[in-house]
Design a protein that fits this description.
- By secondary structure, the chain is an alpha/beta fold.
- It folds into four domains: about 190 residues, Pyruvate-ferredoxin oxidoreductase, PFOR, domain III (Pyruvate-ferredoxin Oxidoreductase, domain 3, 3-Layer(aba) Sandwich), CATH 3.40.920; about 180 residues, Thiamin diphosphate (ThDP)-binding fold, Pyr/PP domains (Rossmann fold), CATH 3.40.50.970; about 70 residues, no CATH class; about 140 residues, Rossmann fold (3-Layer(aba) Sandwich).
- It has a seven-stranded mixed β-sheet, with helices on both faces. Strands 3-4-2-5-6-7 form a six-stranded mixed β-sheet. Strands 17-19-18-21-22 form a five-stranded mixed β-sheet, with helices on both faces.
- Strand 5, helix 2 and strand 6 form a beta-alpha-beta unit.
- The longest helix has 21 residues.
- It starts with a strand and ends with a strand.
Length: about 625
């Protein structure tokens, strides 16, 4: 039996609320500290405790971080999901289970490892009775570490990080880890091929989640005000602001330079945010789909009154309450067309941790430059799960406050300005901020019909003129939003368009298709309105597919509406089951859905050359 080294997935099946989160993230961080590329995804229910939960760790020597559809190593700690967990072990895989679960094991094609968790935890007499069940999770950490080769020193380091170097909890938990490892060494002969060996591929990387990255980015971007209301999966973004702002933004005299307010609901949260933005503060809120829906009217006010604010939408499955703890990209069309009447949204679409951080501060610059709401669409997978990333860099550019008139500016203009008057031809007007003492600084902010001087009017011609300027402002915005990331391959005729957290799976799918001879180029869209590069990419390739995690192909719809002449060659590969995108469904979706197009011919041609068998709906 030859070993399979640093290229498999581990799934830990437990009960929500059992305290397994610490154990699972300890495993993840220990593997990361061994220099091995790794990613972790938590599949948890929307109740507080008692239902099944799974934590999947992907180990990839090649650096792939997308979700895999196959799991080779399973740790089963939950009787309720035991049969399912056993069935999902890949042939030749390893199945670890708590031996007090008395259910039949009928498979002979896997390695089976019973673990006496309850017996071992009773031997840990120093563990207080009230936390014994929590600490018992560390026993499977130790057993797994011994069996597949996780460095115990790295586990101890991971525990020290988690418990902030507090000696007592670190010692209690690490003693349980060692007890599990020692038991496995003496009692579990290894019969599976899965092993970990140290590498150096994570030495210059960090590990974080997107909500934390976004919060730190916002702080570095000068956030002064945040209002929020708790909602999964966005809550931890606001909580990260609360954690890091006192550390990073306290003045020498001890006074704060920020305010974070938990509002009574999402409507109040965005109302406060718009008020703070009008007052000149860099203001933001964060929410998810149901809360985003409640924010619609105030978003329309900010658009028409031209108030800069930032709204983070960490997406989950809808409609309605939907699946609160499952990931999705289902809010895109809503964000794009939010509000009644005619409007254009400015949307940023981060695709990794670095961009969650960078868009955290860039969103404020863009909002103030364009004087409009900026919606940043992340999702649960990106926001709450752990991802590897290059370290963040402090912004090396000055804050862009946009067109703000101060006292000296008004004096030079001799009062010749209007809040909604376009002086430069870019459709963006000048504004003043409260506190400006010049007698000509004041104006009345209106969400109703107004003219260039912010005076109320219902004149049809004036209304048309104001709305046409807002539409033109959207064209100016194209020059200020992030451009797409394009990766081209010589000889490719297929172009893949994606956005957000699907990037990791798309990259892996392209590599897999290339091995079978199907060359492709990719473009990751990072903003709406689209920049010129988006149209050029679509024009360049014979066939375009748009990959996204929603039922209806929302980005596909928006692209076809934006470029109707190009729509016939733009196809949709859209799928939503609540799980993060995988390379398998992207690859199979591309081939399955276009049997009559160029991909069928190209796949068959290259398959014949490589003697690759091609079946309907899949590529082997």
């Amino acid at each position: 039996m030859s070993n399979i080294i640093n290229d498999f997935s581990i799934s830990v099946a437990t009960v929500n609320g059992s305290g397994s989160s610490t154990a699972n993230t300890t495993l993840l961080r220990a593997i990361f500290k061994m220099g091995i590329p790794v990613s972790g995804k938590n599949l948890f229910p929307s109740n507080i405790q008692g239902l099944p939960t799974w934590y999947t760790i992907r180990v990839s020597k090649d650096g792939y971080t997308g979700r895999r559809d196959v799991t080779e190593v399973v740790v089963a700690m939950n009787p309720a999901s035991f049969a399912r967990d056993l069935a999902e072990v890949a042939p030749g895989g390893a199945f670890f289970y708590a031996d007090d679960i008395k259910q039949p094991i009928t498979r002979a094609d896997i390695s089976v490892y019973p673990m006496p968790i309850k017996t071992l935890i009773r031997a840990q007499t120093e563990v207080p009775a009230n936390i014994r069940d929590l600490v018992s999770n560390m026993l499977y950490v130790g057993i797994l570490a011994q069996t597949i080769g996780i460095d115990l020193e790295k586990i101890q380091a991971a525990l020290s990080f988690h418990f902030k170097n507090k000696e007592k909890p670190v010692t209690l938990n690490f003693n349980a880890v060692k007890a599990g490892a020692e038991w496995a060494l003496d009692n579990l002969p290894k019969t599976d091929p899965f092993m970990l060996e140290s590498m150096n591929k994570t030495d210059d990387l960090i590990m974080t989640d997107g909500n934390t990255a976004a919060a730190i980015g916002a702080i570095y971007g000068g956030v002064q005000f945040a209002a929020w209301y708790p909602i999964t999966p966005a809550t931890s973004l606001a909580e990260s602001l609360i954690d890091y702002l006192p550390v990073l933004r306290k003045r020498e005299d001890g006074k704060n330079t920020y305010a974070v307010i938990q509002a009574e609901d999402e409507l109040a949260a965005i109302g406060m945010t718009v008020g703070a933005g009008w007052g000149g503060l860099r203001s933001m809120t964060s929410t998810s789909g149901p809360g985003f829906s409640l924010m619609t009217e105030f978003a329309g006010l900010a658009y028409y009154a031209e108030v800069p604010v930032v709204i983070w939408d960490v997406q989950r499955i809808g409609p309605s309450t939907g699946l609160p703890t499952r990931t999705s990209q289902g809010d895109l069309t809503f964000a794009n067309f939010i509000g009644h009447g005619d409007s254009h949204s400015l949307i940023l679409l981060p695709g990794n941790m670095r961009e969650c951080f960078e868009f955290g501060w860039q969103a404020f610059d863009i909002a103030e430059r364009i004087q409009t709401p900026v919606f940043v669409l992340s999702d649960l997978d990106m926001g709450m799960n752990q991802w590897m990333s290059k370290p963040f860099e402090y912004p090396d550019v000055d804050m862009d406050r946009g067109k703000v008139l101060w006292e000296k500016d008004l004096e030079e203009l001799k009062g010749n300005w209007g809040r909604y008057a376009d002086k430069d031809g870019d459709a963006i007007t000048y504004r003043t901020l409260p506190g400006n003492k010049h007698p000509m600084a004041a104006y009345f902010t209106r969400g109703t019909g107004h003219d260039e001087q912010a005076r109320y009017t219902e004149d049809s011609a004036t209304w048309t003129r104001m709305m046409d300027r807002l539409k033109q402002k959207n064209e100016t915005a194209r020059l200020h939003v992030p451009k797409p990331i394009i990766d081209e391959t010589p000889g490719a005729t297929l172009g893949i368009i994606a956005y957000g957290s699907t990037e990791a799976a798309v990259s892996e799918a392209r590599d897999q298709m290339a091995e079978s001879g199907l060359k492709s180029a990719s473009m990751r869209v990072r903003a709406i309105p689209f920049t010129a590069e988006v149209k050029s990419f679509i024009e360049k390739y014979e066939q375009i597919v748009v990959v996204e995690m929603n039922r209806d192909g929302q980005m596909h719809q928006i692209l076809c509406a934006e470029y109707p002449a190009l729509a016939p060659k733009i196809r949709s590969v859209a799928f939503q089951d609540g799980l993060p995108a995988s390379a398998k469904w992207i690859r199979e979706g591309i081939i399955k859905n276009y049997e009559g197009g160029i991909m069928k011919d190209e796949v068959k041609k290259n398959a014949a050359k490589k003697k690759v068998v091609v079946k309907k709906g899949a590529q082997k």
